[in-house]
Structures are given as C-alpha cells and as structure tokens.
Amino acid sequence: MKNSKRTILPPNRISPVLREITIRFWEQPELRVWLQGCRRVVLGVSGGADSMVLLWLMAGAPGRPAWAPEVVAAHVHHGLRGADADADQAAAAKLAAALGVPFRTRRLNGERLRRAAGGSLENALRKARFAALRDILRRSRSQALILAHHQDDLAETFLMRLLRGSGLTGLGAFGPVAEIEGMRVVRPLISWTRAEIRETARLAGISWREDASNRDPAFLRNRIRHRVLPYLERATDHAPVAQTLARTARLLEREQRALNAYADLLYRKARQERLRPRRVGLPRRALLQEDAVFAPYLLRRLLADILKSCYPPPEDRIRELEEFSRSGRPGGLLQTAHNVVVWMSPEEILWAYAKPRRDISRAQLLQIFKKSAEKKVLSAED
Fold first, then answer.
1. CA–CA separation, 31 vs 34, rounded Å?
2. Which of 281, 278, 299 shows the shortest CA–CA distance to 356?
3. pLDDT digit string (tens) for 178-219?
4. Three-class secondary structure of residue 35 per DSSP
5. If you placed Cys at 38, which of 17, 133, 143, 164 could pair as Cys (CB 3.0 to 4.6 Å)?
6. What would the pLDDT profile of 298-346 be if each residue is shown by its tens digit?
7. Distance (Å, rounded) from C-alpha 287 to C-alpha 266?
8. How far apart are the C-alpha atoms of 81 and 77, rounded to whole Å?
9. What residues form DSSP beta bridges with 351?
C-alpha cells in the first residue's frame, strides 16, 4: 500500500458540504433499525479509504446523535505483505487515537494459513479474519460488527457470482444487515459509492492506505472493477451500471430473505434430532412436497445444522443430496461434504451424521443410524 497524505480537520473547520454528508449518514432512515439494541459496536478498520471514512463518520463526525453506539476500532493484521501491512495497522491506530476510539488488533499467521488453505487463500483469510473479529466483539461486549462495504463492492460481488453461476442466494450478495459467524454484521455504507467515500475523505482530511494488489489483474474482482464495469458503462443504456447492479442485488437479497423465512419455518416443522451420537433428520415427504421446490433450502439447513456452520454448502453437494432424497432406496448411505454421511431410514427419513473421523466402517455407520429407531426424537420445541 502507499499512503494518501491528508490532515484530519478539527470540527470547527468542517465545511457545510461535509456537514451535509454527515447528516446524510446519520439520517439514513434504516440506520437506527440496523443498529437497534447496540450500545457498543466493533468497526473493522483495514487502513483503506472506506473503513477510515466509516470510522470517522461513526466516531468523529459532527452531529453524531445521542443514540449512536460506542465504537471500538478493530484491525486484523494478516501477517503477510511485511512492512506494508505494518503501515496499514499504524494508520488505522493513528486515526482511532485521533478520534479517542479504543483500538484492538489481532495478528494472523498468514504463511501458515497459506500452507493450510489447500484451495483459496482468500477464503481461508476471510474465515480467520471473522474469527478474530468475533473474538474482539465478544471481549469488548459489543453487539454488532460494522463493515465498510459499499455500493461498488456490492455490484462487483454480484457480477462475480453471476459469472460463477450462483443462484438467488449468491446473487443477493450481501445486504445491509447479515448474520455471519454468530455476529450481527451491519454495512452502513451500502448505498454509498466509492467516489462519494473518497470525496468525503478528501473533504475531512482523512489519510488512508492504498493496497497495490487492488490493481492486480490476476484477481477476478480487479478485472471486473477496472475492465468489465467501465466497459458496461460505455456499452449500456443503463448507466450508472454499478448502481443498477447493486439495486438488483438488493432486490434479490430482499426476495431471498422472504424465502429464507418460509424455509426456516418448514425446516423447524420437519426437523428431527437424535443424540449420542447426534443425528439430524428430515422426512422424505418434506423434501418432496410442493414439487420439491423447497428441497434445496431444507437440505442447506440440514447440512449447516449437522456441521454447525454458517457457511453455505457447495451447490453440487446440494444437488447430490436432492438426487439421493428423490431416488435413494431405504437403507442407502451417501458420503457427502466434510465427513457427513446421510442415510435413508426404512421410515423414509433422511438422517445426517457428521463422522468424527474418516475410518468409520459402513457397518459401524449403519449401526449408528439404526439407533435412530431406538431413541426419542427431539423436535424443534424440545
């Protein structure tokens, strides 16, 4: 990263334009709803323009309302990029100190994560970063994590997932409020553009750090940001394209929330559980009702339930389970993701079990599943 040199303005030198910007931020109609019940929040600060501006808006801007929560600034050092990463942390700490905001940091072992990632280092870092932020959230007794994702991020994510063949869940991308890793995550800048945020930084005299990797064409997001979106701006009649794509993603996210609420109700009604060892089941009829249109939603919940994970399982695993639930004969076993095995009982209940180790034989698995007929079923109400 390189540093963008500016000097933060004292409150008595803030221009009328900048005051209007801060009013726009705090008077967003939904903001108070997004932050409802929050006495204290953790704000992720990378050192980049977006998070530095958000920290200033939430903790240092004039006109901060009485109901606004306390802010704890949190920085996760990935243990990569050497002195550049150290400078990112120093910049975030400097702004937090200037605003009188508590600053917390966690350092990851980036090289170890790189070796263990196997697939995507980006995903491994993301999971480790959220785990670190969750720890800060817990220790600071805060009620929400605040992130600086904005409208351009949303448009880029929408296109990335569209090109990867995502369904409604993926295309909805992220909304202003989400539940991630057991945390309430709020994105107050979701309707702001990157240009508006940079202009706010300029007006407020906020310095930030620029990550050189944000221009590296090896990353799909960068190619979309610097090549695809500018081309679409020139080639389409629906400019500004980022705003249009972000609006579409927000509409799909709203549709997805409605579907999820109904699918959650169906899942709670149909779900069964047995303990020692833990197995979670769904009657086959629940997966096939209403032309099986809700089967993928129910099966996603089944896998997330048995794995106790908030990350959605891959779509190919869901399709595999769908096929098994449609055509699998009673007594059939299927090994799926993350050592999860499913079994169709003689009563046509699809039971899922997470193996604690790989070397459990088929005979042992069948014995475990057959205990399902011997113990009390735990319903959602239990």
1. 5
2. 278
3. 888 788 999 999 999 999 999 999 999 999 998 777 788 878
4. coil
5. 143
6. 999 999 898 876 666 777 888 889 999 888 788 888 888 778 999 999 9
7. 10
8. 10
9. 281, 343
Domain borders along the chain are 2-251, 271-373
Q: With residue 51 as reference, give the H or E element that holds it.
A: helix 49-59
Residue 173 near residue 253 (C-beta atoms within 8 A): yes
Q: How far apart are CA 142 and CA 69, in angstroms?
A: 9
Q: What's the rounded Cα separation, in Å, for the pair 154 and 178?
A: 14
Could you give the angle at which helices 151-163 and 241-270 cross, rounded to 10 degrees? 70
CATH of domain 2-251: 3.40.50.620
Do 203 and 212 meet the contact criterion of CB atoms below 8 Å apart? no
Strands (E), the chain: 2-4, 40-44, 70-77, 103-107, 144-146, 177-180, 183-186, 208-210, 272-274, 279-283, 333-335, 340-344, 349-354
Packing angle of the helix pair 121-139, 110-117 (nearest 10 deg): 130
Determine the Cα–Cα distance for residues 108 and 189; give it in Å rounded to an integer.
Answer: 27
Please enumerate in sequence order all residues whose Cβ is within 8 A of that of 270, keeping only pairs 6 or more positions apart, or say none.
Answer: 282, 283, 286, 298
CA atoms within 13 A of residue 41's CA, in its CB half-sphere:
24
Which position has the token pair 């966690």? 106
Q: Which of 311, 308, 321, 313 is nearest to 278 (CA)?
A: 308
DSSP 69: P
How far apart are the two ends of the chain, measured CA to CA in Å? 53
Describe the chain by its helix, strand, coil percentages, rounded to 5.
55, 15, 30
- CATH level 3 topology of 271-373: 3.30.465
